[in-house]
Write a structure and sequence with these properties.
Pfam families: Glyco_trans_1_4, Glyco_transf_4. Keywords: Transferase. InterPro entries: Glyco_trans_4-like_N, Glycosyltransferase_grp1. Helix content is about 35%, strand content about 15%. By secondary structure, the protein is α/β, with parallel strands linked by helices. The chain folds into two domains: about 230 residues, Rossmann fold (3-Layer(aba) Sandwich), CATH 3.40.50; about 160 residues, Rossmann fold. The protein has an eight-stranded mixed beta sheet with strand order 3-4-2-1-7-8-9-10, with helices on both faces. A six-stranded parallel beta sheet has the order 13-12-11-14-15-16, sandwiched between helices. The longest helix has 16 residues.
């Protein structure tokens, strides 16, 4: 029996190509390849798409099974949909008319924490599954679990009101936020976490451990990019892929690069990504750091996913220097698909995905001096590069991951189901 699945994400990768949207969309297509009826709905607002009055739904492409849902107004602190009178009736009609067996939620941003309760009320028979891609429910600071002012990380949910660095909220507001979110999430039948670290954070926060299964994310298989022709040279070309913001550690990487320039190290760093929607202070800081780096750092700007293999073919290493508890960075999976070892911060899900000394190297987060030291070692040690790149393996195929989800869905719909 193939379940009828509605997939909900907090945008569409055509409008916002973040890791969560890309994975949710890839999984949706894998469900279809498994001969399931599936519908993809991405919530959006006027940041990414102009509103079209008269309907809450918009076409995103020629496909009849993908659409956008206009999410109205969203309270980011409380994760609440503040325009329920406009949103709930239209989404209720979609739920009733499409009548899924499973609603697979990938994020509640824009949708609102009220979404699971609405689904349960409208479709009591429907199973609700939610993949936890980050810590947004736990931490109102964009789910980072890091202090916005001093960049200090924390892991315990009870410290959020004191440590996240948001101004203007009282301890009672933090407490009520947590109570309200946990109450709404009680109707979710099963949670999925792509990492053990993220699961542990949610268990600490109050979700029963038996309600969270760990299933790693997958990727559509692609041919690996060829290794760069080094000739008689060294594996000294590093690549950064992704947005440039304070939490991704892009500034840490540029500071490390400046140290390498000062030490006259022979290397190249290729930066793929832009500084988007950041504070003036951070944008100016990045401009200053780029100006200092000189010709060895190449600022290449935004890129299309279709160009990734060609870009990977020009680098020897991929660097993921995030300073927050990343859960399952898409860029690490992409690096492994193309046989590139990864230098990454040894925290959170990054430390699970990259085995230190096996298929990559861990560094202390937010430490430009150590990152520079590791980059220098990597740029001058072809034996190390050969060893680590030889251990790199591609991530799980998205169709195999979809089968893990489908076995779970079938068992939820029919408890007597036994996988072949």
């Amino acid at each position: 029996m193939n379940p009828r699945i509605m997939v909900l994400a907090h945008n569409h990768p055509d409008l916002h190509p973040g890791g969560t949207e890309i994975f949710a969309h890839d999984l949706f297509h894998a469900y279809k390849r498994a001969e399931c009826d599936a519908l993809f709905v991405g919530a959006t607002n006027d940041v990414h798409r102009e509103r079209r009055p008269g309907t809450s739904f918009q076409a995103i492409n020629e496909a009849g099974d993908e659409m956008l849902f206009w999410a109205g107004h969203f309270d980011r602190f409380n994760m609440s949909q503040t325009d329920l009178y406009a949103v709930a009736p239209d989404f209720t009609r979609l739920l009733k008319s499409w009548d899924p067996d499973v609603v697979h939620i990938h994020h509640l941003v824009l949708w609102g924490i009220e979404l699971p309760t609405l689904i349960r009320r409208v479709l009591p028979h429907c199973r609700i599954v939610m993949t936890l891609h980050d810590y947004y429910q736990i931490c109102p600071n964009d789910g980072l679990m890091i202090n916005r002012k001093n960049r200090q990380r924390y892991t315990k949910a009870d410290a959020i009101g004191r440590l996240c660095g948001l101004d203007g909220f009282s301890p009672d507001q933090y407490s009520m936020r947590a109570v309200n979110l946990r109450n709404h999430l009680r109707v979710v039948d099963q949670f999925i976490s792509p990492s053990e670290f993220l699961k542990d954070r949610y268990v600490d926060w109050g979700i029963e451990p038996e309600k969270i299964s760990v299933i790693q994310n997958g990727r559509p298989p692609v041919p690996a990019a060829p290794k760069r022709d080094m000739g008689t040279g060294m594996p000294n070309v590093f690549g950064y892929f992704g947005n440039l913001n304070p939490w991704k550690g892009a500034d840490v990487l540029l500071e490390a690069s400046n140290k390498l320039v000062e030490d006259d190290v022979d290397f190249d760093l290729r930066i793929h990504g832009d500084v988007l929607f950041q504070t003036t202070e951070f944008t100016e800081r990045m401009e200053h750091l780029f100006e200092k780096t000189g010709h060895q750092v190449h600022r290449l700007g935004a890129y299309e996913r279709a160009d990734l293999a060609e870009l990977m073919a020009r680098v020897d290493w991929v660097i993921v220097p995030s300073i927050w508890w990343e859960n399952a960075p898409l860029v690490i999976q992409e690096a492994f698909q193309h046989g590139r070892p990864v230098i990454t911060s040894g925290i959170g899900g990054m430390a699970e995905m990259v085995r230190d000394g096996h298929n990559g190297i861990h560094v202390r987060p937010d430490d430009p001096a150590e990152l520079a030291r590791v980059m220098k070692d990597c740029a001058t040690n072809p034996k190390l590069w050969k060893k680590l790149s030889g251990h790199v393996r591609a991530p799980a195929a998205i169709d195999d991951v979809a089968q893990e989800y489908l076995v779970m869905f079938r068992q939820m719909i029919r408890p007597d189901f036994v996988a072949a």
